Amino acid sequence: MDSKAMMARGALTTALALTLAACGGKDEANQAGASATRTEAADEQADAEAGAAPEASAEAGEEAAGSASASEIEQMLGWLTPDAMTVAYDRMDRRLDPAVVSVVYALPPKAADVLDERATLDEALDVVFDGDAEAKNWLGESTLGFTVALSSTPYFLRPLRAPMTDEALAGIFEQGGFTKNVVDETAVFLPDGAFPWRAAALEGGLIAFIPVDIPGAGLEPLHGAREQPESPVEQQLAALLGQDPGIELVLLSGGPLVHFDVDQPIAQVQFALRNLGTGGGAGGGAGGGAKGYDGQVVLTPTGDVHAVAKQLNEREHPEENQQVQGLISAVHFAPLEEEGQSGVVGRMEIGPEQLKHFLLR
Question: Does a structural domain hold residue 201?
Fold first, then answer.
């Protein structure tokens, strides 16, 4: 492993601590509120026992749905190489413009590339698959993306919407102009044309999209991850996403990363969007019923956090339209005050009126 990959791996190992702490606080508050509500209801209702059965049934159903989502997450994370330099998990059922998200929340360009490439994957799938083979008919929305040192293009993992036979899956890729090969007992589909990824059918009903510029079949990082114990990043992501289905997007990146708004390189980045709605969407989030999102970014610079916070609060992007410029100025950055933590945190809630400016058109 080269020094750049080692630095990124070390940064990612600790990148989730703040996000986990923030989400844990929310969870505790939510659980306390729910507990108080249940206690009051029990005091007021003399027939609580009679009404307990349907309530217990509903709670059991919610727990089952949450477990299924957590199972899918853990299955995808099992293929995550510990050498990943940037990792992003996305279970949003509405598509936000990655360029707007990146500029508003001040994400370094190299970290934001994973979000851009996720949109590129959607566009490429729309080009090569049509009719009954349209990707939305057989491919789930939840996505795990990560980069490795050998390519600037990310790997992406996405689940099948439903179990599918090998013959049916091969037929779909054949309609898209792919040629099937078998490498190390894994079906690998090679594109015919400018599609930027190979595709591989993995265990558990997952499709891996592998950058075409990766040497060989590109399976080594995936198979290597299966042979190693869970990494701290894998464990923390599984806990974070499994405990709070409202978190629909998480991005972690290790540096040093160039940032055009500040003078110092960024050692690590963590970014998350939490759905403020209460409905049930893809992957367990609020999805289409979203009232908006709570967005938070933590940037850890290599130097003075106060100087970086000042530069981020003074950033200007005259190339953006007036609405996006207003969103940029609404994100306030401040140095972290928690003992033992170093970084700059920026946060903004995206309300219904602001959300329309983020939606991908």
Answer: no
Maximum average pLDDT range among 159-168, 290-299, 338-347: 159-168
Domain count, the chain: 1
- DSSP string covering 169-230: HHHHHHHTT-EEEEETTEEEEE-SSS-SEEEEEETTTEEEEEETTSSTTS-HHHHHHHTSPP
Q: Is 17 exposed, middle or buried (0-12, 13-18, 19+ CB in 10 A)?
A: middle
**pLDDT the model gives residue 326:** 93
Domain enclosing residue 324, as ranges: 1-23+67-108+138-154+218-361
Task: Tell me what pLDDT residue 174 has.
Answer: 95
Residue 212 lies in a domain: no
pTM (2 d.p.) = 0.80
Taking only Cα atoms into account, the Rg of the chain, rounded to an integer number of angstroms, comes to: 22
Q: Is the pLDDT of residue 37 over 50?
A: no
